[in-house]
Design brief:
- It is a single chain.
- By secondary structure, this protein is mainly beta.
- The chain is built from eight helices and 30 strands.
- The chain has a four-stranded antiparallel sheet with strand order 5-4-3-30. A four-stranded antiparallel sheet has the order 6-7-8-9, with no helix packed on it. A four-stranded antiparallel sheet has the order 10-11-12-13, with no helix packed on it.
- Strand 19 and strand 20 form a beta hairpin.
- It is globular.
- The N and C termini lie far apart (about 85 Å).
- This is Protein mak11.
Length: about 550
C-alpha cells in the first residue's frame, strides 16, 4: 500500500514542470536569468542564445567582404560591453548616401538596403563602481590585444581580446586579472607600446607597468597642489584638496611626457629616461581668459595631446584649447561656436600615401567632442612650421583662433546628447579603391554608439581658411571672423546602436586577425603567452630604462 502511494507521488512530481535556470553565454562570462513563473514555462528544446538582433546570432562574418570592427565601451553602470560591428563595403564606398542615385532615378539605399549589423561579444559588470577610462594595446603577432579598464573602485582590470573575426565563443577572450597599485580612482590609461602600460589616478601618481609580468617598474609622483580659492569641478572630501592627474600624453619618441592635474593651473614635463620632472609651464591669466576660463573657473587642464610628429601639443580646458609649439609657446586657441564644453580630443590617423591625391589632408587634423553632440575638426598643419606663429606685439596679448573645418553630428543632424568619448579607426584599403575612409566611433551619454565614415575627399572639399592669422593686422580680428564661420557637415552616419548604458569611455579596433583552429584553444593560449614574452624581451626598454 505504501509502495503504491510513493510511486503515485513520484509520478505526480515528474508530471509537474520544474523551475529551471537558463544560462546565457556571452563571450567568456555566463549570466543567469531569474527563473520564470511555473505557469509560463513550456517544454523547449535547447537553442542558440539570442543576441541584439533577433534575426541573427553571433557567428563568423557571413560575408568575407564585410569589415568587422570590435567596439568596447565602459559606462557609469559598471558594465563593460563588447560589440562587433559588421560593415558592408557598399556603405564604405558611398561618399554621400543622401545624394547617391541609381540609373532609374531612385535612391539606391532604399532599393538595396545594406545596414551595419551589431552583435555582442561580451557584456558583464566588470567593476564595482563606474568605469572611467579604458585603453587598447597595439596588436601583437599573436593576433590579440590587451584591454585595460580603470574604475572608481581603484582597480585596473586586464583582458585579452582576439583580433580574429567573431565566432560563437572565442576562448582567447579571457581575463588576465587586475592591478591594485593605485589607492584612488583611476583617471587615465595608455599603452604607448605593447610592452608598457601607463596609468594615472587621483592619488597624483603615474605608474608604469610591464605587460610581460605586470610588474610596476616605476611610479612618478606629482606634487599635491596648494588650495587656491574655490575648489574645482569635483569637490574633494572634508579637509582635503582637489588633487589627481587629469590626463597625460607621451611623446612619440617615448622619452618625454606631459601631464595636467586637478587644482593646478600648470602643465608638467617629465623625463621618462630619468623618471624626474623636467619643467613646469604655468598658464597665465590672459591665456586662460582667451579660452573661456573665468574668474571662478578652475583654470586646470582637462586633457593634453601630442601630435603624431611630436612638433606641437594641445592642452584642452573646459570650454577651449590652446595649441603650443615644441618651444612651449602658445600658437593659437580653439573655441567652439556656439560655446560648449569639450570632452575628448584625438588626431586623425594618417592615410596611406598611395591612397589618392588628398592623402595628406588629414595631417595634423584635430577632432574634438563636445557637450552638444558634435565632433569638431580643426586643421593644425599650418602651425607646425615656424611661419605659423604670428608676428608682432599682438602675440603676447591675443592669439589667433582656429576656424572649424567641419563637424560630425550636432543639432543639425539630430544629435544633441554629449559625446563623452570617441575613437577613430583607419579602414583597410583595396587596390581597386581610390578612397581610404576612416571610421569614427562615437559614444554618447544617452547610451548610443554611432558610426561615421569620413573620406579624404570630404575633408578636401571643405574650404581651407587661414589658421595662422596671415593677411590680418590684428589677431583678434581673425578670431572674430572665425567665430562667424558655420561648420559644414562632413561624413556619413552609417550605423547606430542603443546599448542602454550611460557610456563614459569607448575604444575600437579593426578585426583583421586570423581565425584559429579548434586545436589552438587550450594549448594555444600558453603558446601565445610565450610568444608575447619573447617579443617583449627582445624589445629595447626605452621607457623605464632608469629602473
Amino acid at each position: 500500500m505504501s509502495t503504491a502511494i510513493l510511486k503515485r507521488k513520484r509520478e505526480d512530481v515528474s508530471a509537474k514542470p520544474t523551475q529551471t535556470r537558463k544560462t546565457v553565454k556571452t563571450g567568456r562570462v555566463n549570466f543567469e536569468e531569474s527563473p520564470a513563473p511555473v505557469a509560463d514555462l513550456e517544454p523547449q528544446t535547447e537553442t542558440a542564445p539570442q543576441r541584439y538582433a533577433p534575426t541573427k546570432t553571433l557567428v563568423a562574418v557571413s560575408h568575407p567582404e564585410d569589415v568587422a570592427i570590435q567596439i568596447v565601451t565602459g559606462s557609469y553602470d559598471r558594465v563593460l560591453h563588447g560589440v562587433c560591428a559588421e560593415i558592408p563595403l557598399e556603405l564604405l564606398s558611398q561618399t554621400n548616401t543622401a545624394e547617391k542615385k541609381t540609373t532609374n532615378g531612385t535612391d539606391e539605399s532604399t532599393s538595396t538596403p545594406k545596414d551595419v549589423f551589431f552583435s555582442d561579444t561580451f557584456l558583464f559588470a566588470a567593476h564595482t563602481a563606474s568605469i572611467r577610462c579604458l585603453a587598447l594595446s597595439p596588436p601583437t603577432d599573436a593576433d590579440k590585444r590587451i584591454l585595460a579598464t580603470g574604475s572608481s573602485d581603484e582597480r585596473i582590470n586586464l583582458y585579452n581580446l582576439s583580433t580574429a573575426p567573431p565566432s560563437t565563443e572565442n576562448p582567447r577572450n579571457r581575463s588576465l586579472g587586475n592591478l591594485i597599485h593605485h589607492d584612488r580612482p583611476i583617471t587615465r590609461l595608455s599603452f604607448p607600446s605593447k610592452s608598457k602600460l601607463f596609468s594615472a589616478a587621483e592619488d597624483n601618481a603615474i605608474a608604469i607597468s610591464r605587460t610581460r609580468d605586470w610588474t610596476v617598474l616605476s611610479s612618478i609622483k606629482a606634487p599635491i597642489p596648494k588650495p587656491q580659492g574655490r575648489p574645482s569641478g569635483d569637490t574633494a572630501g572634508p579637509g582635503e584638496v582637489p588633487a589627481g592627474v587629469n590626463d597625460f600624453t607621451i611623446h612619440p619618441s617615448q622619452k618625454l611626457m606631459l601631464s595636467v592635474g586637478r587644482g593646478e593651473r600648470c602643465m608638467r614635463l617629465w623625463n621618462l629616461m630619468t623618471g624626474k620632472k623636467a619643467g613646469v609651464l604655468n598658464f597665465d591669466r590672459d591665456l586662460l581668459a582667451q579660452v573661456g576660463e573665468g574668474r571662478y573657473s578652475s583654470g586646470e587642464g582637462r586633457c593634453v595631446l601630442w601630435n603624431d610628429g611630436g612638433e606641437m601639443y594641445v592642452v584642452g580646458f573646459e570650454r577651449g584649447a590652446v595649441v603650443f609649439g615644441i618651444d612651449s609657446k602658445p600658437k593659437a586657441i580653439i573655441r567652439p561656436s556656439p560655446s560648449t564644453k569639450l570632452h575628448q580630443m584625438c588626431f586623425l590617423p594618417q592615410a596611406p600615401a598611395s591612397a589618392n591625391a588628398h592623402s595628406d589632408v588629414r595631417k595634423d587634423t584635430l577632432a574634438i567632442s563636445t557637450e552638444d553632440g558634435r565632433i569638431l575638426l580643426y586643421n593644425l598643419a599650418g602651425l607646425s612650421s615656424e611661419g605659423g606663429e604670428p608676428d608682432g606685439p599682438q602675440q603676447q596679448n591675443e592669439l589667433p583662433q582656429l576656424p572649424c573645418l567641419g563637424q560630425l553630428g550636432g543639432q543639425a543632424a539630430g544629435i544633441t546628447s554629449r559625446v563623452k568619448d570617441f575613437d577613430v579607426v583607419q579602414l583597410p584599403s583595396k587596390a581597386s579603391e581610390t578612397e581610404t575612409p576612416m571610421l569614427v566611433v562615437a559614444g554618447s551619454s544617452d547610451g548610443a554608439i554611432r558610426l561615421f565614415t569620413v573620406s579624404n575627399s570630404d575633408l578636401a572639399a571643405v574650404p581651407q581658411l587661414e589658421a595662422n592669422g596671415e593677411g590680418s593686422a590684428d589677431g583678434g580680428e581673425v578670431a572674430d571672423n572665425s567665430k562667424q564661420q558655420k561648420a559644414k557637415q562632413v561624413g556619413n552616419l552609417i550605423g547606430k546602436l542603443e546599448t542602454g548604458n550611460r557610456i563614459t569611455c569607448i575604444g575600437a579596433f579593426l578585426m583583421d586577425g586570423k581565425v584559429m583552429g579548434d586545436n589552438a584553444t587550450a594549448g594555444g593560449l600558453n603558446e601565445e603567452k610565450d610568444m608575447l614574452s619573447d617579443e617583449v624581451e627582445s624589445e629595447d626598454d626605452v621607457v623605464g630604462a632608469y629602473i
